[in-house]
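Contributing: when you submit paired examples, paste them exactly as shown. First protein:
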Amino acid sequence: MNEKEINEFLEMVKPMLAALPKEEIMENINNIPGMSDEERALFIEAILALKEEEEGKE
């Protein structure tokens, strides 16, 4: 994926994230196999930041 495709993808995903409860997002990420605790924490932080950004638009 190039940068343009990634940005287009994020614009599609952000509204979906805004609709999900924070707890559900965290639970789903915590159930991803093969991730270290550090990777999980960073991924959760990044996803929740996108969620908050989208919620701020509303």
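Second protein:
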Amino acid sequence: MTSVEISMTFALVAVAITLIARARRPGRTDQERKQAHVTVTMMFTFWFSGILLGKIVLWTS
């Protein structure tokens, strides 16, 4: 992985931890918790897809 990919990964993990921590605070509804978990799942899915697409483009060019 390049340094850019590594720094993007650290940033994504930091945001995910923040979202999950906010969702676990008292007073949050189940809907808010579910939205936070779906958001984190989508973030990692798009991150993985972007990295994979970038690697494919670099390999084929």
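If you have annotations for the second protein, write them as plain sentences, like these:
The chain has two helices and no strands.
The CA atoms of residues 10 and 16 lie 10 Å apart.
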